[in-house]
Each structure stands twice: as C-alpha cells, then as structure tokens.
Design a protein that fits this description.
two-stranded antiparallel ribbon; alpha/beta; TIM Barrel; single chain; about 350 residues; globular
C-alpha cells in the first residue's frame, strides 16, 4: 500500500478516536447531571440548637416529697411528713399542726342535731367496689384503707379529690388467730415491743394523708391484741405522738385512753345481710338520738352494703340527724400522753 494512503487512513483513525473521547466525556457530564438532578441538592449542614439561657429555661416541675406517690403529693402537707427508711411517716408539724386536724373535713360543731358517723372499711381490696363507694357515698363517711391493697394510690387520690376523711386499717391479732390471719405485718401479742413498733411504722408509711387509724382489718377487729394492756397502750401512744386519731372497733370497750379517738358503738355488717344491715343502721341512729352522737363501723364493701348505706344516709336530714365526719366525734385521751 502506498505511504500516502497509509497516512490518510491513520489520520482518519486519529480523528475517530478523538471523537469517541469527547463523546465519552460529554456523556459522563450529562449522566452526572442527571444523577444530581435525581438526588437533589446536597443536604444543608445542620445548625446546632442554641441552648436556652438560664433566664429562658422553663421552671422545673417540683418533685413529690420522697416516699409520696406523685398523684397524692398535692393532697399531702410536706410539713406533716417524716422521711424514714420505712417510707413517708405522718408526724406533728414544727408549728404543732396535726394530721388529725389538717386533713379533717369541715363541720359545723354548733349544729344541735344528734350526730351519727360511720367508718367504711375494706377500701382498696376490691378496686371496682371501692371506686363505686368513693363516687356515690356521702363525703362525711370515713374510708378505711387496707395496707395490703395492691394499687391504692389512684383510689386514695380520688377519695382526696372528693374530700373524704381517710383512715389506715391496722391489722392486729384477732380472736381465732392464727386461723384468722390478719396479714404478715400485723401487730401480734407474741412479738417483742420493738418488732411491733417497726411493724406499726411500716403500716403507717404505706400512704400518707390520713386523719388516723382504725383497729380493724375488714371483719378482723384485733380483739386479742387490744386485750394486752401494755402493747395496746404503746400503739395508741405511738399514734398520738404522730398527731393521729385512733378508733376502736370493739363495741362496749372504753374509749381510747392514750390517744384522741372514739370507740365504735355498732358494727353494722355482722352478718352481711340486707335485713341485718338495715336493723343495725336503725340502732346506730337511735343511739345517736339518745347520746347525742354515735359511731358505726362497716367492715367490707359489698353491693348490698353500698345500696343500704345510700338509702339510709339519703333520709337522715329529713329525720333530723346530722351525718358527721368521724373527726367531729373524737374525745381527748383519758390518760395524759405527755
């Protein structure tokens, strides 16, 4: 092949490869542009949030007192709480204020009518019936909460919202023990005084805001423990030293001698039948007329008990009897406690 022809072919091949090169380059730029268009612009750099100046920080939410459920904190006076390893224990405030007075319901003590008061026990064991009692019964009925309730805080909060007076049900050694078992933290006649004192503190620390305690756990009324003069007196002294009332549920027993309180006149639900409850409520009302005041105790929350209580209390005003909170019936200790 002549040399001129070879040069011509070589020149053509050079121009062809040069064209291919620029085609590839242009396609590369075009594809990159398409890719960028699909992906969109790169994300902007994040700007760190500016910390608020101290003056702009929202005020912190106050924490509830230690040992007090948050839902109950607004119903508890911090000055009346002692913080211990057992939990939040009630106490007399630095200014002398006492739970029995601070948490008491108002009542016109000049009311000349006979007064009848009632304690309803067993609150917390059956949540639905306990809630029904809180929502439907008159607020002057005192509610006694068991220390063994699985989730008492919502019920206590609701009771406090409605302004009920609340009590702690104290488990004490009853007649028929150990067949009748008041629970693993009960006050027992066979325990040393120090052990019973620790158990009492554990019981009182379950939840705060009560006006006092009642010596019964539902139908178990602690008769054997109450028959032991010294342990029974020490228990009353411990309650009195914390500004708490004590209610004895043994009809016919003397009024508490070493604590402010009262002794129940009638146990309303023994037995738990409709007819017996009606008869005992009528007896309670009659005793109030004769004595000027009377206190009843109903140990268990049942549908028939709630029905009879609602019907009975609805007619008291018309019959000239005042339904009073339990704090309106208390007596001072018969034996000086200080």
């Amino acid at each position: 092949m002549p040399e001129e022809s070879l040069n011509t072919q070589g020149g053509r091949r050079g121009w062809i490869w040069l064209g291919v090169f620029w085609v590839v380059v242009l396609l590369g730029f075009g594809g990159g542009g398409v890719t960028l268009a699909l992906l969109g612009p790169p994300p902007a750099a994040e700007t760190p949030e500016l910390a608020l100046a101290p003056a702009e920080m929202p005020p912190p939410t106050p924490a509830p007192p230690r040992g007090v459920p948050e839902a109950l904190a607004r119903h508890v006076d911090p000055a009346l709480v002692e913080f211990t390893a057992m939990g939040a224990l009630p106490r007399i405030g630095p200014d002398g204020s006492m739970p029995m007075r601070v948490y008491a319901r108002p009542f016109d003590r000049q009311d000349p009518r006979p007064r009848v008061a009632l304690i309803l026990g067993g609150i917390g064991l059956r949540a639905s019936l306990s809630e029904q009692a809180i929502r439907t019964l008159p607020r002057n009925i005192a509610l006694a909460f068991t220390p063994y309730a699985p989730n008492p805080a919502p019920l206590i909060e609701e009771a406090k919202e409605r302004d009920f007076e609340t009590l702690l049900a104290l488990p004490m050694e009853p007649t028929g023990f150990p067949m009748n078992d008041p629970g693993h933290r009960a006050l027992l006649t066979g325990l040393p005084a120090g052990e019973n004192a620790q158990r009492l503190e554990w019981l009182l620390a379950r939840y705060p805001g009560h006006v006092g305690a009642v010596g019964a756990l539902t139908s178990m009324r602690g008769e054997r423990f109450a028959a032991m003069a010294e342990p029974f007196a020490q228990m009353q002294l411990a309650l009195s030293a914390r500004g708490l009332l004590y209610f004895d549920v043994r009809p016919g027993a003397p009024h508490p001698q070493r604590a402010w309180g009262y002794t129940v006149d009638v146990v309303v639900d023994e037995p738990h039948t409709r007819g017996e409850i009606e008869q005992r409520l009528a007896l309670l009302e009659r005793l109030a007329r004769e004595r000027g005041g009377a206190l009843g105790y109903l140990g268990e929350v049942t549908p028939v008990a709630l029905e009879r209580l609602a019907a009975w209390t609805a007619g008291l005003d018309a019959r000239g009897v005042a339904l009073a909170p339990v704090t309106a019936l208390v007596r001072r200790p018969e034996i000086a406690t200080r």
